[in-house]
Design brief:
13% strand; single chain
Length: 699
């Protein structure tokens, strides 16, 4: 109804929101992929047969025809190899042992670990040791497709290049052992690695230290046979679990093994030194490290965001229910007999309300409160609204016509023309219960009360969208109003049903016209003027809710944007005393936290939920979702019970969490962007169907 200059609604932010969500999901999924990395744990699957017969050594070169050339470490040499690192707990201690004994070794590193601890990779090379590839996330190469095998090797090579500036040529498959244990399907992975330019290094002596068999057992397993004609490649682990036994065993192996020198694999088989990595590989490695670091940070931040938002949501739910329970008890205790509170004037601003206006006016005239005056202000309607009211021929109803000037102007016109000291402001699509006016004005027995909110209910609640809005009115709006009543910080008296002292309206200069939520703006002004604002749950009125998602979007956008305007307009209330201070430090803080900031985190929560379905245990995700939904159902059941409503709509609560909630938080996103850009939304009248009168339940 209110006429405002129309500005184009910002649209580009939807593309940015979608792209941002996709980038966040990609980062989280990458972190989930990286977190799959694990060390040697558990017994490898049993193999049937071997791909090699009588291999000559554990270092394998495979040509394009599939031929295998094997090399071994010469007699008198031992190549200690360490898998699954680098790990800041164990790798430095192993390096200390090697330095103490002037020994060199080969470290087959996991690429994701190199990105986490590049300084350890640099130290390994700086102290004369050698690096090899042990994949990026430690998968069983047999169980993944060829493209994933190549990706695992390439990512690790790039990570090493970024950390050290060097290339690598050696590769060891996760879960591998001696050449005689190389199964045919594992050989296919070895051949794929050879096609990518890597030599595969298996082992002569597998200590199985990952089983933690004891230091003595590890030391025995690492010693070559006394009569061995060649040296040995020894497999140990410096990451992937508790490697304290490996650290102690390394010291003993180095100290107790006589007659052998400790070499790198490349030194043992006569391979030349590695080359300097190319600029491209270094750049790709740095980008990979930054991506992994950012993904880990985002994952941690998202986790704490989920924890914080869940805690706030549960806290809000607990406070709502506790406050509603206390409010209901106080209401029963303070409920008294109906008393006459003076002349009441009901003001109905109407713009193209032909569908419902007759039912609205009849319900007001039929109220059991004596001497009600009804003032209908036709704000330039083009559908014959004023004529419909006149044809009713009701003596206590006056019709005032004016050019279209907006809802606040129509209300102020009605206030100026009304004769009563208590003024009930009503939307043109609202139908009152027979006792609603009488119930609404009873709190004015307290001279400090300047305004009273009634209980708005959704009339057209038979469809799914109607049921969702019905639950929102009962659970969200009405539970909040009970809580605000107790806290003395009611921020909004709904336009559908609210009553004001004329004196209170005079104190705030009538209904303001500079925000889209004139009802919220007016209520906040009344509080700041020193009046109490309370809730009368027994004063029931029925309203027609939007019947389509498009109409719902427009209505909620106006509400949300208008509430932001009103909160900003009254922001100084946080520094005031009395009713204004309660509004500022309780009501405004609550609105900003739970109706503005918390909904803005909801898209992130949903992105994390999609990530959780892919990377977290389904049972855990399902348990969290079911538990939270169950709490919502219980709170809704309690709210319905307080409002003496049937429990039938409860079955729609789970669906509400995955459809309706998203629409509402997108409204907040849209409103926030519009507020930041300085846009302004028109007051758009909703197309009425008359359902408020045709479908009004009886109590």
């Amino acid at each position: 109804m209110a006429r405002h200059a129309a500005h184009r609604t910002p649209r580009a932010h939807w593309i940015l929101l979608l792209l941002g969500g996709l980038v966040l999901l990609a980062e989280l999924c990458f972190n989930g992929y990286v977190e799959l990395s694990a060390g040697e744990s558990g017994t490898p699957a049993p193999h049937v047969g071997s791909a090699l017969t009588d291999p000559a050594g554990p270092v394998l070169r495979v040509d394009r025809a599939g031929g295998v050339t094997a090399a071994a470490v010469p007699a008198g040499a031992i190549a200690l190899t360490f898998d699954d690192g680098p790990d800041p707990r164990w790798t430095p201690r192993i390096l200390d042992a090697l330095r103490e004994h002037h020994a060199r070794a080969t470290f087959f590193v996991v690429g994701s670990q190199v990105n986490r601890h590049p300084e350890l990779a640099r130290r390994i090379l700086a102290e004369g040791h050698e690096l090899g590839v042990h994949t990026f996330t430690h998968p069983d190469l047999v169980s993944v497709p060829v493209w994933r095998q190549r990706l695992e090797l390439t990512l690790t090579t790039n990570a090493i290049a970024a950390a050290t500036g060097r290339t690598v040529r050696l590769m060891r498959p996760p879960y591998s052992s001696t050449p005689s244990a190389l199964a045919p399907d594992e050989f296919a992975a070895v051949r794929a690695a050879a096609d990518a330019g890597y030599l595969t290094v298996l082992t002569d002596l597998d200590t199985e230290d990952w089983r933690r068999p004891g230091v003595d057992a590890i030391v025995r397993a690492a010693r070559p046979e006394p009569r061995a004609t060649s040296g040995a490649v020894v497999m140990l682990h410096d990451g992937g679990g508790d490697r304290s036994q490996t650290v102690e065993a390394t010291w003993r192996i180095l100290a107790e093994t006589r007659g052998f020198r400790f070499v790198t694999v490349s030194e043992g088989v006569g391979l030349p030194a590695t080359d300097v990595a190319g600029t491209g590989a270094k750049a790709r490695g740095l980008a990979l490290r930054w991506t992994q670091t950012t993904a880990a940070w985002l994952s941690d931040a998202m986790w704490w965001l989920i924890v914080l938002s869940t805690a706030l949501a549960l806290l809000r739910l607990a406070v709502q229910v506790a406050a509603a329970r206390r409010h209901a008890r106080l209401a029963r205790r303070l409920r008294h007999g109906r008393a006459y509170r003076g002349r009441v004037s009901v003001i109905v601003p109407a713009y193209n309300e032909a569908a419902n206006i007759a039912a609205t006016v009849r319900s007001l005239v039929a109220n059991d409160y004596p001497g009600i005056e009804v003032v209908v202000v036709d704000d330039g309607s083009t559908d014959g609204t004023a004529d419909i009211v006149r044809r009713l021929g009701l003596p206590s109803v006056r019709v005032i016509r004016q050019p279209n000037a907006g809802k606040p102007a129509a209300l102020n016109t009605g206030i100026a023309a009304a004769r009563g000291d208590l003024l009930v402001l009503v939307d043109g699509d609202t139908v009152f219960e027979p006792d609603a006016v009488g119930q609404l004005v009873q709190p004015f027995a307290d001279p400090d009360v300047g305004a009273v909110s009634g209980n708005t209910k959704v009339a057209n609640r038979r469809g799914l969208l109607g049921r969702w809005q019905h639950l929102e009115y009962v659970v969200g709006f009405n539970l909040d109003r009970r809580m605000f009543d107790l806290g003395g910080c009611m921020p909004t008296i709904p336009g559908a049903i609210g009553a004001f002292r004329r004196e209170a309206l005079f104190d705030v200069d009538g209904v303001p016209a500079d925000t889209l939520a004139e009802d919220t703006d007016l209520t906040m002004a009344v509080l700041r003027a020193g009046w109490r604002v309370v809730y009368a749950p027994d004063a029931v009125a029925w309203t027609e809710a939007p019947g389509s998602l498009r109409q719902l979007w427009r209505q909620r956008y106006r509400w949300c944007y208008g509430t932001m305007q009103a909160a900003w307009k009254h922001r100084r209330a946080v520094l005031e005393r009395g009713g204004g201070g309660r509004l500022g430090r309780r009501g405004l803080v609550y609105l900003v936290l739970f109706q503005m900031l918390l909904p803005l985190t909801a898209p992130l929560v949903d992105v994390y939920a999609v990530y959780g379905l892919a990377f977290l245990p389904w049972a855990q995700v399902a348990a969290v979702w079911c538990g939270f939904t169950a709490l919502q159902v219980l709170a809704a059941a309690y709210a319905l019970r307080l409002d003496r409503e049937p429990m039938g709509p409860l079955w729609t609560v789970p669906l509400q969490q995955v459809v309706y909630r998203q629409l509402l938080y997108l409204v907040v996103v849209q409103s926030s962007v519009a507020a930041l850009l300085g846009g302004r939304q028109r007051w758009q009248a909703m197309a009425r169907t008359g359902l408020a009168s045709a479908m009004t339940p009886t109590r």
